[in-house]
Amino acid sequence: MPEAYIVEAVRTAGGRRGGRLAGVHPVDLAAKSLDAVMERSGLDAQAVDDVVMGCVSQGGEQAMQVGRNAVLASKHLGEGVPAVTIDRQCGSSQQAIQFAAQAVMSGTQDVVIASGVESMSRVPMGSTAMFHMKEGLGNYKSPGLEEKYPGIQWSQFMGAEMIARKHGFSKDDLDRFALRSHEKAIAATKSGAFENEIVGVDIATPEGEECHTVDEGIRFDATLDGIAGVKLLSPEGKITAATSSQICDGSSAVLVVSEQALKDHGLTPLARIHNLTVTAGDPVIMLEEPLFATDRALRRAGMKIGDIDLYEVNEAFAPVPLAWLKHTGADPEKLNVNGGAIALGHPLGASGTKLMATLVHALKARGKKYGLQTMCEGGGVANVTIIEAL
């Protein structure tokens, strides 16, 4: 079977909801990452067979096929490049990578850009996405679901609380994990670890135009006492805003190509895609599926967790990566080595390609070989992608 390779992987620095990226239209924000992979690869638009873009909140200014509109807004693509927008909840752009890889591995396409965008600043309060993220309560009902799951409130927040209880994590465990996320993100930012993956976005500020290149959500003054003092989201629970991913604006993109495209265009690969897995399980606890998806991915790849050098496990809520570590027996020192969504932000539809950009560049910086990325997703679904750095 033909191989699929990653040639470029970029992301914008995250912007808080209502923050530094709030004034950038999501179409233009997405186009920024698309243009970056084109500029860095030196490809002509005619070489691109498709663009697959993840976006969860496909309404308002992210409606009307935001992927296609981003292609049209791009400086380096244009009318002749097709695009599609997909929604697999928080794993949307990780699924975009997998769709791109499958297209290349099937031999039907040679050059595909997997990408994602989410402008959470434009997602209305009270919408499904914001309601779940902020309040932790689901009001999505259907007769079919009610028959199978009577009285269930579909809530990622409640799923996170269920994971914390099931796996025996205390509030202090969650607070300490959140602090460590900020500490790693601070160290990565100060050391320049993100420089090769971040594409700057020009923004208007009261002081004049600036280029946004630093993740806005990082708390450079974070302390354990400060994190521990944040109000509980539920009086009987353990989760706080400080131990949850930050609502975030951002975009990201990964260029996936065939071996033939490497030869035809003189491209140098960063990584080879080694395994693609997606599984589904309990939709009520919802966020636990990365544990079992990882088991399947490793089994199908003929690998053990100790064979993997770095892991990116999305920090939707602190209990998720903690439960993943406990279940897999993975080394905590290899997990989210540059910080995760608790510090860096979670731009929903863009997080899959965002994490891949971080993983690819972290492997390269450390001279390591294998990386594994996984995301929990609404409805009890999870993606796992294993890559081999080249």
Structure description:
With 390 residues, this protein is of the alpha+beta class. It is built from 13 helices and twelve strands. The protein has helices at residues 26-41, 66-73, 92-106, 128-135, 143-148, 156-166, 171-191, 224-228, 259-265, 289-301, 319-328, 341-344, 351-366; strands at 4-11, 15-16, 50-54, 83-86, 111-119, 201-205, 208-212, 248-258, 271-280, 310-313, 370-377, 381-389. The strands form two sheets. Strands 1, 2, 3, 4, 5, 8, 9, 10, 11 and 12 form a ten-stranded mixed β-sheet that branches. Strands 6-7 form a two-stranded antiparallel sheet. Strand 3, helix 2 and strand 4 form a beta-alpha-beta unit. Helix 10 packs parallel to helix 11. The longest helix is centred in the middle third of the chain and has 21 residues, at 171-191. The chain is globular. The two termini are 19 Å apart.
Proportion of strand residues:
15-25%
The number of helical runs is 13
Order of helices and strands: EEHEHEHEHHHHEEHEHEHEHHHEE
Main β-sheet, in a few words?
10 strands, mixed
Q: Whole-Å distance between the termini? A: 19 Å
- Give the number of DSSP strands: 12
Structural class: alpha+beta
- The coarse silhouette is globular
| Sequence stretches where pLDDT stays below 50 over 5 or more residues | 126-138
From the alpha carbons, calculate the radius of gyration and give it in angstroms.
19 Å
Helix content: 25-40%
Subunit organisation of the chains: single chain
Indicate the mean pLDDT.
Answer: 94
